Amino acid sequence: xxxxxxxxxxxxxxTKLLTLFAIGIAAGFAAxxxxxxxxxxxxxxxxxxxxxxxxxxxxxxKIGNKVHYVHSDGFEFNLSVVKDTTYTENKNDFxxxxxxxxxxxxxxxxxxxxxxxVQFNGRIETVNENDQTxxxxxLYVNFENTSFFADLDSSxxxxxxxxxxxxxxxxxxxxxxxxxxxxxxxxxxxxxxxRCYNDDSSELGEPAYLYYSKSKGILKIESLNGxxxxxxx
Length: 233
Known about the structure:
Layout: H1 2-40, E1 45-49, H2 53-57, E2 66-71, E3 76-93, E4 96-108, E5 115-120, E6 124-127, E7 133-143, E8 146-152, E9 167-175, E10 178-187, H3 189-196, E11 209-213, E12 217-222, E13 228-231
């Protein structure tokens, strides 16, 4: 009986020792991995991505600003800027920390369940083939689950896209008897992605477009469900 108890005790003790030994090996590997990681990243690079002057100060998106629109279903309503928030977003990557200044805007109707979300991201530095530096600002707009994006230069005009049909410049366009100059038309993100990756877009239906002016903002915006709103001054 005593021998049996000793055998059980020895078995449990052996199991515990093996477990502790395995944990010790794992901890050792983790320590080595951490040391290797620290050795390969001796310096943290820090980057700043502030908003461009246009993105930061565009008065058309100030709180309280109001624009009159007509819906494709026939009714008219106002969209007011109910949110205009600038904040800093910090992103950490291997050996790099990036501080991004963003501006979030929301336009909303008090009469109808309609809203539009707009976001400007901090500028991105680019260098062309002639080593000339320039900055671009990503613009994102969302309306009824239909999203749009474009890269703007420091003055608020779009940068030419490599994807055909993504951005089209119009010298003049007329909406409800008012003409607007220097308008750019942005293809919706789903059709953009389909064209970018040469995917079949037949199931997406007709594309949607955003008509945008740097001085007036959103002139007309369409959704993939066939609805749209158009400015009416």
